[in-house]
Amino acid sequence: MARPKRPPPEGFQNIEPTLLQFSEKLKEIENTKSKTISKKEALWPIYQVHHQRSRYIYELYYKRKMISKELLTWLLKNKYADQNLIAKWRKKGYEKLCCLRCIQSDENNQKNTCICRVPKEQLDKELRCVTCGCKGCASGD
Fold this sequence. Notes:
Low-confidence stretches: none
Largest sheet: none
Helix content: 40-55%
Order of helices and strands: HHHH
Shape: globular
Number of strands: 0
Radius of gyration: 17 Å
Mean pLDDT: 89
Distance between the termini: 34 Å
Structural class: mainly alpha
């Protein structure tokens, strides 16, 4: 990730090591090439790390109150986290959403929300989202 032009606000140095770990994970995933899985499946780990990094920042601000509003804004502006995904997590019913593509009806074959949004007790077997590999992010589970 390119360094932003404006220096980070107070408190960034406390979370920077964790953010660097997420960046290293992403680099590792990008450098790993597997010919045994499909192109979509190869993207699943990237979606998962992206989710984890955004969730980490969300938890720091909204749940644990360990970072300032100024730092959150700076992190979102500099794309350390997904602003739209965090906005969805704040809404009832989307607290565990894995990615935004899973709630976009035009992204799915059935013109409906993704299979991972269906509560597990309503499914006959365990299915994975073809977009991000999620095993189920319905908030009722």
